[in-house]
Design goal:
Number of domains: 1
Largest sheet: none
Distance between the termini: 25 Å
Number of strands: 0
Strand content: under 5%
Structural class: mainly alpha
Length: 60
Amino acid sequence: MNTSSLLLPYVTGYPKVKYQQWFRSTLIRLIQLCSDYQDFTRQRIQTEIHCLISGYSNEF
């Protein structure tokens, strides 16, 4: 897998609440875009993996 295309910008010192807001808004956007629950679940997992690869904590 080519991880360079999965990297997200990482900003140090950014308040944790901003990450929570970003992740929540991303999930809301996925709900709007996905056609069914399986598609949403797949995209949610992929987004979580992208975050972990980019160095973000999984404790949103």
